[in-house]
């Protein structure tokens, strides 16, 4: 009797030990996924992650990608790959091939969104110990986005071994997020709230709000304070982001308006074809890139550097032809000049539409203008940053030309007093011609920049001509500094008005404000004395 009792106890212990080994064996856990429902699969994934066995990562990735199947005959789970009409079977732990099976003999393991979240968390935890620094960083970020109490011990183990400063900081944040979803003491959760609050950003608010439902009531004030602090920081950075967007828009307006400011100031010409010079510059960029793509693709990163002088020469030559062929016969007749240049703009649009078609043309970004980088709480795109730098370089280059060259001196003399300049031997007609060509060439350069942020189409220039005139009138006709200040001011003002009233109503309000401003200062921000004003 006693012997039978001890044998029963021994068999029970062996059964429990066998069950425990099966539960801790990754292969047995993976095979168990083949028979589990969604809830059971979540529990099994937690056990698989707790095993901390890096061999299970391919199986979990295959599960997430829909490549994990169970064999109907014996319930064994395999990673599969398509092999003709069959499926190639791969052992989920060793990666060894295990033959093939007909698709009908296999059943795909189903997955839902809840399981995907658990999978992301499990994969993040399992790759925290990877020898690759970038893999560990990505894993820590995955755990931070999908915190789980099951991964907490693994995160802490990885954190104790981590030596890289950036990865360690991200792991500490991931640990804090995991602590909030665990049953750790209140003081640890309070410290975790402070850590999450120091991260900042909308993701941190999401983590805190998700965790607040399960936290003790005593921790709610800490959560509210952390969220309020993050929201204040976000409001500050949103303000900075709007200022940056305004500056980048202002730099675009500066490029589009600076050539118009020169011709308007020196010649008194309202050039309605100025926007088409911008459009032709953009199409010149497209043509340069097309030639490079077909003849020398290795030079693509230099395409914009090549397009700048090409666009300047092409549009400058077209401007010279327009001035010599049309505008020089209409000086002193502003209405006729406006109508003539408007007709020229329609001719240029239709010509481009006939050659290139009405659809948008693709102009690529060189590698050094692609992507973005964070600056505090701002997101700075490289193409916008380079356009701002390019606009300022064009502005200061033109300023040096105006102040330090003989042509600039003659241009300023004609602006201030045409008759006196003519009596001093300056050929005012040729100053007008080359000034118009210079303004058109700068508009072409503006088209090179705009091709990187806007659609290249026959209507490209029309989007900026009205804004360009507003910049010139607001800043002061013919004054380069006024054009700079006016462009940046209107750019920032537009970006602050758009979120609250919309883009169209925002432009209308800007126009109304400029009209009211001109009523008080008819000569703009920086008044320029000379022939054009006196007339």
Please provide a written account of the structure.
The chain has 535 residues and is of the alpha+beta class. It has 22 helices and seven strands. It has a five-stranded antiparallel beta sheet with strand order 4-3-2-1-5. Strands 6-7 form a two-stranded antiparallel ribbon. β6 (372-375) and β7 form a beta hairpin. The termini are far apart. The relative contact order is 0.08. The model is unreliable at 5-23 and 530-535 (pLDDT under 50).
How do you describe this structure in short?
The chain is α+β, with helices and mostly antiparallel strands and 535 residues long.
SSE topology sketch:
Layout: H1 2-24, H2 26-32, H3 38-50, H4 57-65, E1 68-71, E2 77-83, E3 86-90, E4 97-102, E5 106-108, H5 113-126, H6 133-145, H7 152-161, H8 165-180, H9 186-199, H10 202-212, H11 220-267, H12 274-295, H13 303-325, H14 334-356, E6 372-375, E7 378-381, H15 382-404, H16 406-416, H17 418-423, H18 428-450, H19 462-475, H20 480-501, H21 503-520, H22 531-534
Antiparallel strand pairs: 1-2, 1-5, 2-3, 3-4, 6-7
Helix pairs in contact: 2-3, 3-5, 4-5, 5-6, 6-8, 7-8, 8-9, 9-10, 9-11, 10-11, 11-15, 11-18, 11-19, 11-20, 12-13, 12-14, 12-18, 13-18, 15-16, 15-18, 16-18, 19-20, 20-21
């Amino acid at each position: 009797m006693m012997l039978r009792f001890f044998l029963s106890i021994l068999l029970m212990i062996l059964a429990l030990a066998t069950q425990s080994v099966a539960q801790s064996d990754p292969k047995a856990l993976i095979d168990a996924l083949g028979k589990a429902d969604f809830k059971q699969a979540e529990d099994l994934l937690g056990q698989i992650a707790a095993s901390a066995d890096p061999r299970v990562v391919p199986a979990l990735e295959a599960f997430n990608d829909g490549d994990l199947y169970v064999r109907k005959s014996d319930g064994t789970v395999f990673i599969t790959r398509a092999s003709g009409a069959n499926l190639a079977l791969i052992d989920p732990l060793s990666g060894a091939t295990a033959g093939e099976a007909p698709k009908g003999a296999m059943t795909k393991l189903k997955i839902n969104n809840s399981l995907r979240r658990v999978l992301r968390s499990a994969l993040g935890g399992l790759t925290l110990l990877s020898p690759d620094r970038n893999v560990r960083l990505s894993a820590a970020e995955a755990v931070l986005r999908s915190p789980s109490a099951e991964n907490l011990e693994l995160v802490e183990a990885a954190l104790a071994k981590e030596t890289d400063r950036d990865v360690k900081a991200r792991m500490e944040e991931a640990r804090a997020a995991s602590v909030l979803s665990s049953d750790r003491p209140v003081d640890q959760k309070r410290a975790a709230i402070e850590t999450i609050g120091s991260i900042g950003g909308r993701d941190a608010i999401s983590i805190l709000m998700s965790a607040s439902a399960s936290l003790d009531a005593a921790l709610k004030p800490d959560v509210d304070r952390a969220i309020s602090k993050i929201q204040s920081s976000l409001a500050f950075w949103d303000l900075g982001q709007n200022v940056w967007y305004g500056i980048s828009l202002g730099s675009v307006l500066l490029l589009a308006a600076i050539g118009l400011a020169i011709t308007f100031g020196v010649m008194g010409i309202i050039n309605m074809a100025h926007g088409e010079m911008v459009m032709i510059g953009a199409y010149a960029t497209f043509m340069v890139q097309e030639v490079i793509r077909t003849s020398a693709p290795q030079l693509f990163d230099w395409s914009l550097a090549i397009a700048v002088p090409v666009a300047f020469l092409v549009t400058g030559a077209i401007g010279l032809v327009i001035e010599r062929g049309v505008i020089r016969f209409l000086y002193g007749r502003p209405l006729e000049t406006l109508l003539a240049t408007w007709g020229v703009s329609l001719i240029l649009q239709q010509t481009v539409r006939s050659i290139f078609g009405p659809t948008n043309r693709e102009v690529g970004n060189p590698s050094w203008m692609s992507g973005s980088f964070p600056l505090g709480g701002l997101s700075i795109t490289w193409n916008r940053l380079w356009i701002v730098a390019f606009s300022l370089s064009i502005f200061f280059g033109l300023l040096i030309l105006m102040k330090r060259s003989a042509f600039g001196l003659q241009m300023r003399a004609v602006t201030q007093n045409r008759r006196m300049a003519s009596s001093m031997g300056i050929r005012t007609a040729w100053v007008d011609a080359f000034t118009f060509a210079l303004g058109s060439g700068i508009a072409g350069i503006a088209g090179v920049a705009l091709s990187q942020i806007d659609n290249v189409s026959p209507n490209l220039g029309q989007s900026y001509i009205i804004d360009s005139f507003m910049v010139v009138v607001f800043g002061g006709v013919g004054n380069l500094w006024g054009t700079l200040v006016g462009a940046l001011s209107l750019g920032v003002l537009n970006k602050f008005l758009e979120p609250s009233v919309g883009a169209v109503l925002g432009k209308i309000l800007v126009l109304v404000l400029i009209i009211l401003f001109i009523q008080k200062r008819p000569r703009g921000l920086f008044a320029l004395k000379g022939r054009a004003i006196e007339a």
